[in-house]
Amino acid sequence: MHPHTRAIVAASAYAVMTGNKVAGIYDHTAGRHLPIAAECRGRRLQAYDGERSVNFGGTLPDLYDGGDEAFVSFETDGSTVRGYDRGSASFYEAKITAELVQLYDHGASAWFAFNVQLA
Fold it and tell me: H helices within 38-116, ranges in order?
């Protein structure tokens, strides 16, 4: 997955799983805050990546990244989100605890951590 896809998927996973609005996210790998917002109402997710000026979202389980012009599948199971990023042809899994999202990118064979800033 692209780093920007991991970040917006992490923010989206948090919004879907907790019902809280995300106002920003801190990417521990990049060591910086990212202007990413996400909100979920029912099965409808809308997110925005302010750095790329790109909308992300749709009706679960298929979300669309307007910048990459690619779909990302998104399925929930307890406190875990799993899916497939068609843009990079890789699977991912995200675990949510408190205000932390840990995302495993199967394409990179690595874990990534994100702290969420609530709206």
Answer: none
16 CB contacts (<8 Å, ≥6 apart)? Answer: 40, 45, 60, 74, 76, 81
pTM: 0.96
Place of tokens 């389980």: 61
In the chain, the number of structural domains is: 1
> Residue 47: which CATH number?
2.40.128
**In this predicted model, what pLDDT tens digit does every residue of 24-59 receive, in sequence order?**
999 999 999 999 999 999 999 999 999 999 999 999
The DSSP result for 9-56, as a single string, is HHHHHHHHHH-PPEEEEEETTTTEEE-EEEEEETTEEEEEETTTTEEE
CA pair distance 44, 41, nearest whole angstrom: 5
Domain of residue 63, residue span: 3-118
Q: Other CB atoms closer than 10 Å to residue 79's CB: what's the count?
A: 12
